[in-house]
Design brief:
The structure is a homodimer of 241-residue chains. The first copy, chain A, has 6 helices and 14 strands. Chain A is α+β, with helices and mostly antiparallel strands and 241 residues long. In chain A, the strands form 3 sheets. In chain A, strands 8, 9, 10, 11, 12, 13 and 14 form a 7-stranded antiparallel beta sheet that branches. Chain A has a 5-stranded antiparallel beta sheet with strand order 1-2-3-7-6, with helices on one face. In chain A, a hairpin with a 2-residue loop joins strand 6 and strand 7. In chain A, helix 1 runs parallel beside helix 6. The complex binds adenosine-5'-diphosphate (2 copies) and magnesium ion (2 copies). Chains A, B: Keywords: ATP-binding, Ligase, Nucleotide-binding, Purine biosynthesis. Chains A, B: GO terms for molecular function: ATP binding; phosphoribosylaminoimidazolesuccinocarboxamide synthase activity. Chains A, B: This is Phosphoribosylaminoimidazole-succinocarboxamide synthase.
C-alpha cells in the first residue's frame, strides 16, 4: 500500500491517504510534545519504538476481541490503519492516581484507586483538553449515548487486557488515554497505545517508563521506551508468532 | 425555635443547632465572596434579601413536589431547615452558556444550550471546586448511583420549575447551583437558591441581576437582588398567601 497525500500532521504522527479510500498510513515521528505542545523535542528512534509497541498491543487487543483501526505494520515507522472519523473525546482509564488527577482532587501520586476510573476529555489543544462529562459529549454532539457507552465498555475491556499484558512483564499500568473513531458505521479503537499515551511504572522499583520522563525532565526517555519494548519482545514475541 | 450553638460558619451563611436534633437555623450573612473566597465584601442587606428570595423559592418548589430542607422563615435573616448530611457535590444546571463553561469549552457567553446541561463539581474551596463526572462521585464515595440519579432528576425538575417561575417576571434563568443532603435516609434539596447561586438576566435588556455584578465589579449588586425580589413579590405574593 503506497502513501499518497499527507492528510493530517499532528504532534507525534502523520496520516497519509492511500490508494484505498478506507485505509490510511499512520507514520510515527520522533517529535515529542507535552503541555499541549508547549514543550517540544525530537527524541531519536522514539517513532520506531512507538510504532513497534503499538503494533504488538493492537495485535494483542484484536486477538482478544477488541475492534481496532490496526491493519498491519508496513515499515519501522508506518502502520496501515482503517480510516476513521475521530470522535474528539479522549477516554482516560486510571488504575492508580497520577498526573492531573492528583492535582485536581488532592490525591497523592501512586494511590491505588478502588476501581478503574474512566474520565473523558474534549480533544482540543487550544482549550487544553478540558475535562467533560458524558452530558457535555451529548450536548455538543461529539458522540451519541450509544457510542459513548461502547467507548466506555471498550476502554474498561482494554484496561483489563492491558493490566494483564503489562503485569506479565513486571510493569504497572497506571493509566492510559484512548481515542476512538467511526469506521463503516462502527466505533473502533484508533490512534496509538504507547509509552506516550500510557503511564507505565516498573512494578518492583516504581521507576517511570513513560512520557512523564520527558514531562518532568527525568532523562532516559527513549531508553525507557526501549526497555518496555525489550520486555514485551522477550515475553510475547515467540508466543505471538 | 431557638438557636443554640454555632455548628458551622461558611462564606455566606451560619448554621446553628436548635432544641431539635433534626433541625437547624440557617442564618444569611451580608458577606459576599467570589473566586473561592479570594474576593470578599460585606454588602448591606444582602442576607435579608437572600433569605427572603430563598424562602419564596423553597415554598414554590415544595408546593410543586420538590423535597427541600426548608421548614419556615424565622426572622429576616433566619430560616429553619432540616438538618442534613451535605453531599459534597455541587450540581449545576445550565440553560445558557456563561461563566466557567464558556472559558472551559470556548463557547460565547449568552449562547443558548440545545438542552439543559447538568454538571457536577466537588465542593472543596481548597481545590477550587473541581469539575467531576458521575464516575468520580462513585469512586470517591461521595454519593451512590441511586443518590446521584435522584439529585440529577431533582435538579432538572427544579430547572423546569424555576425557568417558569422567573420567566413570569421577565427574568432568564441562565444557570444555577444546587446542594443536596441526606435527611432521614432521604436526599433533599438543601442550602439556598438566591442571586448568589443563580445567574439571572433581565429578559428584555439582558441586564445581569446576580452575583456576576459582584464578581465583575459592575456595581449595584444589592440593588439588583432587590429588583429580583421586588418582581417576585409583585407577581407571587398575593398568589402564595
Ligand atoms: N484511524 C484513524 N483515522 C483517522 N484519524 C486518526 C486515526 N487514528 C488516529 N487519528 C488521528 O490522527 C492524529 C494522530 O496524530 P497525533 O500526532 O497524535 O495528532 P494530535 O497532535 O492531534 O494528537 C490524531 O489527531 C488522531 O486523532
Ligand atoms: N440543611 C442543611 N444541613 C446541614 N448543612 C447545610 C444545610 N444546608 C446547607 N448546609 C451547608 O451549610 C453551609 C452554608 O453556608 P455557606 O456560607 O454557603 O458555606 P460554604 O462557604 O461552605 O459554601 C454550606 O456548607 C452548606 O453545604
Ligand atoms: Mg495524539
Ligand atoms: Mg455556600
Amino acid at each position: 500500500m503506497e502513501k499518497r497525500e499527507k492528510l493530517y500532521e499532528g504532534k507525534a504522527k502523520v496520516l497519509y491517504t492511500t490508494d484505498s479510500e478506507n485505509l490510511l498510513v499512520q507514520y510515527f515521528k520522533d517529535d515529542t510534545t507535552a503541555f499541549d505542545g508547549a514543550k517540544k523535542e525530537v527524541l531519536e528512534d522514539k517513532g520506531v519504538i512507538n510504532c513497534a509497541i503499538s503494533t504488538v498491543i493492537f495485535e494483542y487487543l484484536e486477538k482478544h476481541g477488541v475492534r481496532t483501526h490496526f491493519v498491519e505494520r508496513l515499515s519501522p515507522r508506518e502502520m496501515l490503519v482503517k480510516r476513521c472519523e475521530i470522535i474528539p473525546v479522549e477516554v482516560v482509564v486510571r488504575n492508580v492516581a497520577a498526573g492531573s488527577f492528583c492535582r485536581r482532587y488532592g490525591v497523592e501520586e501512586g494511590t491505588p484507586l478502588k476501581e478503574p476510573l474512566v474520565e473523558y476529555f474534549y480533544k482540543s489543544d487550544e482549550l487544553h483538553d478540558p475535562m467533560v462529562c458524558p452530558n457535555h459529549v451529548y450536548l455538543f454532539g461529539w458522540a451519541t449515548r450509544e457510542e459513548l457507552g461502547q467507548m466506555t465498555k471498550a476502554a474498561l475491556e482494554v484496561n483489563e487486557l492491558l493490566k494483564k499484558f503489562f503485569d506479565e512483564i513486571d510493569i504497572l499500568l497506571v493509566d492510559f488515554k484512548l481515542e476512538f473513531g467511526r469506521h463503516n458505521g462502527e466505533v473502533i479503537l484508533a490512534d496509538e497505545i504507547t509509552p506516550d499515551s500510557c503511564r507505565l511504572w516498573d512494578k518492583s522499583t516504581m521507576e517511570v517508563l513513560d512520557k512523564d520522563r520527558f514531562r518532568k525532565d527525568m532523562g532516559k526517555v527513549v531508553e525507557s521506551y526501549k526497555e518496555v519494548y525489550r520486555r514485551i519482545m522477550e515475553r510475547y514475541e515467540r508466543v505471538e508468532e
